[in-house]
Amino acid sequence: MGERQYKSEIRAHLASKKKGKWFERSISPLLTVLASISVLTTIGIVFTLLKEAYHFFQETSVWDFITGIEWTPFFASDPKYGIWALVSGTFTITVIAILFAAPIGLAIAIYLSEYASDKVRRILKPILEILAGIPTIVYGYFALTFVTPLLQEVFPELSRFNALSPGLVLGVMIIPSIASLSEDAMTAVPQAIRQGAYALGATRLEAAIQVVLPAALSGIVASMVLAVSRAIGETMIVTVAGGSSPNFGFHPMESVQTMTAYIVQVSTGDAGYGSTLYYSIYAVGFMLFLFTFVMNIFSRYISRKFREEY
Amino acid sequence: MQAVQVKINQKMAFENTTDSGNETKAARIVFHTKDLNLWYGADHALKNLNLNIYENEVTAIIGPSGCGKSTYLKTLNRMNDLISSVRITGDVHYRGRNIFDPTYHVEELRTSVGMVFQKPNPFPKSIYENIVYGPKLHGIKNKKILDEIVERSLRGAALFDEVKDRLKENAYGLSGGQQQRLCIARALAIEPDVILMDEPTSALDPISTLKIEELMQSLKQEYSIVIVTHNMQQAARISDRTAFFLNGECIEYDVTDTIFYRPSNQKTEEYITGRFG
Fold first, then answer.
1. Choosing a second label site near A243 at 20 to 30 A (CA), which of A120, A130, A190, B170?
2. pLDDT tens figures, B137-148
3. Which residues does A72 contact at the CB level (< 8 Å), separation at least 6?
4. Is residue B19 over pLDDT 80?
5. Are the C-beta atoms of B254 and B52 separated by less than 8 Å?
């Protein structure tokens, strides 16, 4: 063996490291503190929501809130706080969005993972991600000033504010995340599995739909659930183009109000601090939190349950 | 595959004679390869191949890594179509029909020429669903017939007794050797004529390997088998004919005993005696 030329340098470096050991030891607690900030923030938000919602439920019965279908908080006498009027608005728009976005997003994912060449994929994916980066207020005015008039050409009975237009535009907004996440899931399916299908005489489309899609199901469903979750929480598009008429039922052609739009309406208005109206936004916010929370749990459950180990 | 520059030679004259002179029995030709050249981009991977594959035989292709043996195998069911940089000249006739003929649908070819891969690649579905995938794909819907196909294919692949009580379970619960036999059963389910095997036992333990080798001996009664293998003992044990490939060329192709005991080319002898490769 030759002469050791660098050993002394390595030793010297190790010795200098020993001196700085306090630094190494402080890293772990430092990172713990940083990580706990986000956890504490979440706990703080939930706590605030619960506390303020508690004030609201001092004056309104929980039962009326979770079973009622009339939402008339601005009535001077006998205001009604039946959350289902707002929930149905949220659901109407979410359903339209997901019905529009799911097939298109999935088709894009199939195209990108099974058909597109590397070159095309390298160009298309960033474009999709730009689409995801457009501020939602821009989408909102796009819905109000472009899509709604266009739809009114087709459906003359469509109101100026309606659920259909923001639903479709919201769908456009969530297409990229469905496409991108589903594409990731499908690309993760090993090539060998596709080849197994091709070797049995399957065409590209047959292999994609019958073999790759089911194999990537957990990721695809998770992307859909995430998209639904985003649609439920989306605020600007529905505030600008959806209207402010809380109506129970599925009325895509009419003005609706979502949970988020209601919160915007009250917080930008002049509801006095401490009024029932003021506290009501926390109750609605808590509902909203519950929905997205359940969706996230559901998404985790799905991806764990259907996860395929290749 | 637009890059395939093939002159579609009209009907090739097919005789039952073979390209090796010391042939005793006259077997029927399944694949007739004529002047086959293949490039991956600028890389000349197969050079002027001329060889015939015969019915109800096991044909082994041996040679060092990168010699083109897998590439040749994948040409036979046109799996190379999936690689866009591939360019092919020359002809491969399957039962008298040029497989590069634009009117020959690749899906049709692949239902006759099945394939088993190096690593077991079952679908992430149940054992039952793995087998019926092919038949369902090609229009067989009757549940009773499908059940029969499952049993027959699994028996054909010597797997039925091991899995008959858990057909509805996921195929990934099987051992590697069982998965590979499942892949063989999956190929059998569409009643192919030829089965291509690309190093089918290289990812398996010796006992599973032995089972698959035994299986091949029984399968050749009904099917023609082409196997690429790194394992020369395996080629000697199971094959009727052996082709030795080197650097994209077919150096020698003959009856297995001749290749192993009286090779006429020195390179073949050097390879099989382990002097290189």
1. A130
2. 999 999 999 999
3. A79, A80, A246
4. no
5. no
Q: In one letter, which amino acid is A23?
A: F
Q: Where are the beta strands (DSSP E) in chain B?
A: 29-40, 43-54, 58-62, 86-94, 97-98, 113-116, 194-198, 224-228, 241-246, 249-255
The verdict on B104 touching A (C-beta cutoff 8 Å) is no
Q: Does B114 lie at the interface with A, CB-CB under 8 angstroms? A: yes
Give the CATH number of domain B56-84+107-272; options: 3.30.465.10, 3.40.50.300, 3.20.20.140, 3.10.50.40.
3.40.50.300
- In chain B, residues with a C-beta closer than 8 Å to the C-beta of A196 are 117, 121-123, 183, 186
DSSP state of A92: H
User: Does the domain formed by A80-305 have CATH 1.10.3720.10?
Assistant: yes
> The pTM is what?
0.81
Q: Taking CA atoms, what residue in B is nearest to A307? A: B124
Band the pLDDT of A17: cuts 50, 70, 90.
confident
- A97-118 per-position pLDDT tens digit: 999 999 999 999 999 999 998 8
Please report which confidence band the pLDDT of residue A21 belongs to, taking 50, 70 and 90 as the band edges.
confident
Looking at residue B220, the DSSP 8-state letter turns out to be: T
Contact between chains at A199 and B110 (C-beta distance less than 8 A): yes
Angle at B161 between CA B186 and CA A198, to 5 degrees: 5
Q: Name the pairing type of β-strands B194-198 and B224-228.
A: parallel
Helices (H) and strands (E) in chain A, counts: 15, 2
For chain B, give every domain's residue range.
56-84+107-272
B143-156 vs B127-137: helix crossing angle, rounded to 10: 110
pLDDT class of A304 with cuts at 50, 70, 90: confident
Domain range annotation of chain A? 3-59, 80-305
**Probe site for chain B from A114, A200, A203 (most B CB atoms < 10 A):** A200
